Amino acid sequence: MALKYKRRKKVVRGTDERLRVLVYRSNKTIYGQLIDDVNNKTLMSLSGLSADIKDEVSKADSKVEASAVIGKRFAEKAKTLNASKVIFDRNGYLYHGRVKAFAEGAREGGLEF
């Protein structure tokens, strides 16, 4: 593991009360995962390639708008798992553009960071 990743992992860690939302940004789309760090399990994941939201994402004009849609749908799915308070892990990406749009979409959907 890279030293930078290990340092960040010490700071951004989920607890019993707050699960961790991890964001991964590729050139095509953005991925979100809801992770339980206590049990080391990924509870759910969602991306623009997921079958249930692919139509909504394709209607978006830009990747930033698509990221906001993905974030909102991510929050809706996370709330079905009783995860309303979470810790946002931007995975080393700057809080700007698509990562910021994902986070704001998740807040609109009802997640609290």
Give an overview of the whole structure:
The protein is of the alpha+beta class. The chain contains four helices and four strands, in the order H-E-E-E-H-H-E-H. The chain has a four-stranded mixed sheet, covered by helices on one side. A hairpin with a 4-residue loop joins strand 2 (30-36) and strand 3 (41-47). The chain is globular and about 35 Å long.
Overall mean pLDDT: 89
Low-confidence sequence ranges: none
Fraction of residues in helix: 25-40%
Radius of gyration: 13 Å
Distance separating the two termini:
27 Å
Strand order of the largest sheet: 3-2-1-4
Sum up the structure in keywords.
113 residues, alpha+beta, four-stranded mixed sheet
Short summary:
This protein has four helices and four strands. With 113 residues, the chain is α+β, with helices and mostly antiparallel strands. The longest helix has 18 residues.
Describe how the helices and strands are arranged.
Layout: H1 3-11, E1 19-25, E2 30-36, E3 41-47, H2 54-59, H3 63-80, E4 86-89, H4 98-109
Parallel strand pairs: 1-4
Antiparallel strand pairs: 1-2, 2-3
Helix pairs in contact: 3-4
